[in-house]
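Today's session is about reading a structure prediction critically. Students often jump straight to the picture, but the first step is always the sequence itself: look for stretches that repeat, for charged clusters, for runs of hydrophobic residues. Only then move on to the predicted structure, which in these notes is written as discrete structure tokens rather than atom positions. Here is the chain we will use throughout the hour.
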Amino acid sequence: SPLNPLFQAMESEISAAFDGGGPEDILSRAFKLTVTREDICTLQPLGWLNDRIMNFYMGLLVERSKKEGYPAVYAFNTFFYSKLSSTNHKGVKKWTKGVDIFEHDVILVPIHLRIHWTLLVVDLREKTIKYFDSLGQKGDHICKTVLKYLEEESREKRNIELTASEWTLHSMGTEEIPQQNNGNDCGVFVCKFADFISRDKPIIFTPEHMPYFRRKMVWEIIHQQLL
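Below is the predicted structure for this chain, in token form.
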């Protein structure tokens, strides 16, 4: 209930994050990222989430996945896909230096398409690549680009050939996942798609949850802890 003292303390902290000082004040630091008040302010109603907020939140999801009972999650940086699509595997080879992405259960690829955020999810347990777009656009070519990347990464890193025919590629339809009802919430949708998927939970939120999710994310980023 809103009268809960804990809830009130959180609310006042969230408001202070938006209005409590200068834009360059540092409010959180982790995952080699620094989040300023200006970054946090993109979580205000109708704000457009920036790369820093997206990458920080993905970092929180990866951190949580190290706990007992969660699938092992690897998340690529938001700049990964644009680099991959404009070059090739060689162009991003160093991004996974010292990491075997195939030791994970789920790989998250947040994607920035000029002015829109979408999410690609690789499930290595099921051999599926799914594309999540809260505006309902198809991303079959994006799925194919990432499958090709996985084939080359597997060959190069593990000397194992992936059998492409064993993989299922699918762009989620508008009846399968919630859709945004404005031009601003795509980043929050991507973060929450990733949140539910990285807990193996069905995606049951709606656009009505967005204002709440935004405020909750402010608290989570400042405290570096998912609620």
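Discussion point for the tutorial: Helices lie at 5-19, 37-40, 51-64, 80-86, 89-92, 140-158, 186-197, 210-223.
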